Amino acid sequence: MNRLEAASFREKSFIVIFGDDTPPGRLFDFFLIVLIVLSVTVVMLESVQSVNAVFGAQLRFAEWFFTILFTIEYLFRVWCVKRPKGYVLSAFGLIDLISILPSYFSLLLPGMQVTAVVRVLRVVRVFRILKLAQYVGSTRILVSTLKASRYRITVFLVAVSTVVTIMGSFMYLIESPKNGFTSIPMSVYWAIVTVTTVGYGDMSPGTPLGQALASMLMLMGYAIIVVPMGLFAAEMVKADRTAPRFGSRNHTHCMKCSEVASDPDVHYCSYCGRNVER
């Protein structure tokens, strides 16, 4: 008798909704993601005036249909865990809650339903369906890398800010307002756009001296892009060497504490000690 057959209805609901190691659980996640994508599509189509003019009523009905389904699903999640507060305050729990609130807020503030596109954040559950959860641990490496390089990146950003301020001020003195350099802030904006190699083209120098200064800033932009990437890459390699390896074991959610910390080899949750086989 497998774990799903021996469980109570509440535990079965938990295994299907939160788990990824059973066919019903994977099927539930698949249909959930399909619904999320469809609901986000509906919200996006509703913002297109030509489509909304013809199918406005149908789109609003579909949006409320999805909202009610997600509300029921959210309440089921809260009900089937033994520590509802742990789920509600977790990252996924907050995302699940935020994804259903815009439609209800739209009853008080018309137009708020467009913010329902945050629902697409729930698609991150696809990691469980595709068995890519083992790579989620890599986010820890990214976070540690950002923390380790934060001081050097801060110094670099301060240096870049100083350069664009100085260059923008010079361009304000050199160029005329007819070329768009109407103030120092506008000139600094141009310097930022130029040094980041974005180049909107809404402002451009018209004097030889201004063009020479712009050329220097353009060349400087390539070096400026490379520096933070080098700093980040160096810290990334260092963090990757010292980080524990993920993916060697499959993990699932513990019904008692809702943490993703259950090791199938020992059958006990790493956080609360509950036997996950019962």
What can you see in these coordinates?
The chain is mainly α. The chain has two domains: 3-134, Up-down Bundle (Four Helix Bundle (Hemerythrin (Met), subunit A)); 143-242, Helix Hairpins (Orthogonal Bundle). Helices cover 64% and strands 3% of the residues. It has eleven helices and three strands; from the N terminus they run αααααααααααβββ. It has helices spanning 3-6, 9-18, 23-46, 49-80, 84-88, 91-105, 126-129, 138-148, 150-174, 184-195, 208-242, and strands spanning 252-253, 260-263, 268-269. A three-stranded antiparallel beta sheet has the order 1-2-3, with no helix packed on it. α2 (9-18) packs across α3 and α9 (150-174) runs antiparallel to α11. Mean pLDDT is 76; it is low at 128-135, 246-250 and 259-266.
What is the CATH class of the largest domain?
Mainly Alpha
- Lateral arrangement of strands in the main beta sheet: 1-2-3
In total, how many beta strands? 3
Reading the helices and strands in chain order gives HHHHHHHHHHHEEE
Question: Within the CATH hierarchy, at the fold level, what is the topology of the largest domain?
Answer: Four Helix Bundle (Hemerythrin (Met), subunit A)
Domains (count): 2
Separation, N- and C-terminal Cα atoms: 12 Å
Output the radius of gyration.
26 Å
Based on secondary structure, the structural category is: mainly alpha
- How much strand content do the residues show? under 5%
Shape: flat
Proportion in helices: 55-70%
Largest sheet: 3 strands, antiparallel
Average pLDDT rating: 76
CATH homologous superfamily caption of the largest domain: Voltage-gated potassium channels. Chain C
CATH architecture of the largest domain: Up-down Bundle
> pLDDT below 50 for ≥5 consecutive residues: which ranges?
128-135, 246-250, 259-266
How many helices?
11
